[in-house]
Amino acid sequence: MSSNLNIAAAPTQDEEVIIANREFIKSLRHRIEIKAGDNSSLLGTTADGVQLLLFAFSNLIVSLNQAQTLAQVREAAAPFNDISTSFLAKLDSGEVVMPFHVKGLDSVIDDIETRATAVAQVLADNG
């Protein structure tokens, strides 16, 4: 079986960029693991966050659906107002920094769109 791939050839400039990017990402991930926790810990925190959001969102939607006055709308939002106010204050002060702020919103949205589409395509191809 013949191949045009020359293993002994030096990497092209594009290949060197890809290799450097992979090494940089690997280094970042290692530093994140040391500072913030391993993948299982990060996934656990992510799951907690998503479940908290789903719980709060579900309670808000049910309460808003039943609200008939502005006072009832405010009452619907009240349970999570204190925690939201505190969280936003920490973001404003810089005590808490979100990764999407550092990465940039456009970059994060691009990642979400690309990965979601790739997963959907795999699922569609196997359906």
Written account of the structure:
Helices cover 80% and strands 0% of the residues. It is built from 5 helices and no strands. The protein has 2 domains: 84 residues, no CATH class; 29 residues. Helix 2 packs antiparallel against helix 3. The longest helix is centred in the middle third of the chain and has 28 residues. It is mostly helical. The chain is elongated and about 75 Å long.
Write the layout of secondary structure elements.
Layout: H1 13-36, H2 39-66, H3 70-93, H4 99-103, H5 105-125
Helix pairs in contact: 2-3
Mean pLDDT: 91
User: What would the principal axes of the Cα set say about the shape?
Assistant: elongated
Helix and strand run: HHHHH
Task: Give the number of domains.
Answer: 2
Alpha-beta classification: mainly alpha
| Biggest pleated-sheet summary | none
Based on DSSP secondary structure assignment, what is the total number of beta strands? 0
Radius of gyration computed on alpha carbons: 23 Å
Key terms:
127 residues, mainly alpha, 2 domains, 0% strand
Quick rundown:
The protein is mainly alpha-helical. It has helices at 13-36, 39-66, 70-93, 99-103, 105-125.
